[in-house]
Amino acid sequence: MKNIVKPELGTPAEPDIIQVIPPYWAEACKHLVKKDRVMKRLIPQFGDACLQSRGDAFSTLARSIVGQQISVKAAQTVWHRFEALLSSMKPANVLKLKVDDMRAAGLSARKVEYLVDLAIHFDKGSVHVKDWAAMDDEAIIAELIAIRGIGRWTAEMFLIFYLMRPNVLPLDDVGLINGIAKNYFSGESVSRSDAREVAAAWAPYCSVATWYIWRSLDPVPVPGADAS
User: Fold this and answer.
1) Is this structure's pTM higher than 0.70?
2) Which of 54, 127, 155, 168 has the greatest CB tally within 10 Å of its CB?
3) Does residue 127 lie within any of the structural domains?
C-alpha cells in the first residue's frame, strides 16, 4: 500500500448505490476462528462489520487511478470535479473529454493518460468483464495490469473490494505486512515468506483474514481510492 493505510475501493455509502456483502463471510469467519489463534481473538471484536462492494468496475478502477499518491480528501475533491465533466461515468464519455478540461479538474498529465487508457481498454472490450466470474484471480490480474496506471497491488485490491474474491493475499500491501508483524510477531519485522507461512492457515479465505488484519490497525474503514 503506497499512501493510504487502508483503502476501501469505491465511494462513501450513497443512497443510490447498492452495497453487496460476500455470501461466504460467515463461513469464512468460522473457518478462521477455528484455524487461527489471532483470528479467534480479532473477529469477535468487529461484530457484524464486513467487507462490502459497491459501484461498477470501470468507475472503481477510474477512482483508484484518480486517488494515486494523494490524500483521501484530495482524491475525493478531484474525483467529484472529474465526475462533473461527464453525464455518466462511462468509458465512451471519458474518451470524448478534452485533455485541458481533465487537467483543469485537477488531474495530472499522467493520470489523464491512465484514465484514457483505462477507457480504451473497456470501450474496446480488452477487459472481459462479463467473463471475470469464470476466470481465476491471476487471469484477471493479468488483464488489469495491462492497463497503464494499474499495478498488481491495485489489481489485488480490486479483486478483494470489487469482485470480492475470497482468497487474495496482497503481499505488496504494507498494511497487511505491518498487521502480521503486530499480531503474530510482537511487532518485529516480517518477510514475505513469514507472511505466507502465517497465511497458510487462512486459506481459502485470505481476503477475509487480510480484512481483519487491516481492521486491527484501523478499526474504521477509510473510504477512498488506492494507489497502484
Assistant:
1) yes
2) 155
3) yes
